[in-house]
UniProtKB/TrEMBL annotation:
Keywords: 4Fe-4S, Electron transport, Iron, Iron-sulfur, Metal-binding, Repeat, Transport
A molecular-function term among this protein's GO annotations: metal ion binding
Stated name of the protein: Ferredoxin
One GO CC annotation: cytoplasm
Record SUPFAM superfamilies: 4Fe-4S ferredoxins
Ranges of residues in domain 4Fe-4S ferredoxin-type: 1-29, 31-65
InterPro entries: 4Fe4S_Fe-S-bd, 4Fe4S_Fe_S_CS, PSI_iron-sulfur_center, YfhL-like
């Protein structure tokens, strides 16, 4: 499951530098997460770092349009790291 930054985002710049997959970037109005690069930090950390550092409750949520299993997220991690 990729994550999604909601309209609650205040553009505090906390999440972008924390993403180990470079999946977060500034969109037209708020930060956005590229679902093709988001692994929910699987392979890097125990939990998503963007959620950990975000000062706004429920600002970064599971993206209902990009549901993936833990195995799929780990496979994406391996691919992004060039480990295949």
């Amino acid at each position: 499951m990729a994550l999604l930054i909601t309209e609650k985002c205040i553009n505090c710049d906390m999440c972008d530098p924390e993403c180990p997959n470079d999946a977060i970037s500034m969109g037209p109005e708020i930060y956005e997460i590229d679902p093709d690069r988001c692994t929910e930090c699987k392979g890097h950390y125990d939990k998503p770092t963007c959620q950990s550092v975000c000062p706004i409750t429920n600002c970064i949520i599971t993206d209902p349009e990009h549901i993936e299993t833990e195995d799929e997220l780990l496979e994406k991690f391996v691919t992004l790291q060039g480990l295949v």
